Amino acid sequence: MALALFDLDNTLLGGDSDYLWGRFLVENGIVDADLYEQENHRFYQQYQAGTLDIQAFLAFSLRPLAEHPPAQLHRWREAFVRELIEPIMLPAARDLLERHRSAGDTLVIITATNRFITAPIAERFGVEHLLATEVEQHDGVYTGRSFDIPCFQAGKVKRLEQWLQANGADLDRSWFYSDSHNDLPLLERVTHPVAVDPDDTLRHTALARGWPVISLRE
């Protein structure tokens, strides 16, 4: 099985879905605007710097899921994807997915952003396999907590290893496309690492190691 792995935010998307979900909550009066916007921005800066405390961020970002009925949350999510995500689904990303699909590769989106946000996005890209940070539900109601290993930095590798074992697959023929230096642990594991519109740290690393650097935004 040849695997084509794709980061989501700022790779297949021309923006960050986790951050944009926070903006959507603020702009629609679902959360306290001043406090939430400030914290959302602070955590995003930490992510970019590679210093994010993922558990602290999850406690913050998943809390609104526990404060509203699932049906209402799903209506908001549908509006969010339609209004803020569909416009940043990059045409070149769709073309890249289709090239791997036509080659018979197994497509996997692997993202630190939680499954509540990313599941409908993966569906819109036509990608069946999604590895994301998991959100806990009890009797169909979101608890505001995560479970399993967060799909972030080295945790992304661990989650993929679990998936590979469950599916009888390996990384002998594998690609991983990402924009972020947070994904270096996984980029170093695949046979074909590709930096996509990378941040400065990843660009420097990719050029030093001879990895391809591409853009899906041009």
From TrEMBL:
- Supply one GO molecular-function term: histidinol-phosphatase activity
- Which pathway, per its entry? Amino-acid biosynthesis; L-histidine biosynthesis; L-histidine from 5-phospho-alpha-D-ribose 1-diphosphate: step 8/9
- Catalytic activity, reaction form: L-histidinol phosphate + H2O = L-histidinol + phosphate
Q: Which UniProt keywords apply?
A: Hydrolase, Magnesium, Metal-binding
Q: Name one Pfam family in it.
A: HAD
Identify the InterPro entries for this entry. Answer: HAD-like_SerB, HAD-like_sf, HAD_hydro_SerB1, HAD_sf
- Documented EC number(s): 3.1.3.15
Q: Which family does it belong to?
A: Belongs to the HAD-like hydrolase superfamily. SerB family.
What is the annotated role of this protein in its UniProt record? Catalyzes the dephosphorylation of histidinol-phosphate to histidinol, the direct precursor of histidine.
Q: What is this protein called?
A: Histidinol-phosphatase
Q: State the organism's lineage.
A: Bacteria, Pseudomonadati, Pseudomonadota, Gammaproteobacteria, Thiohalobacterales
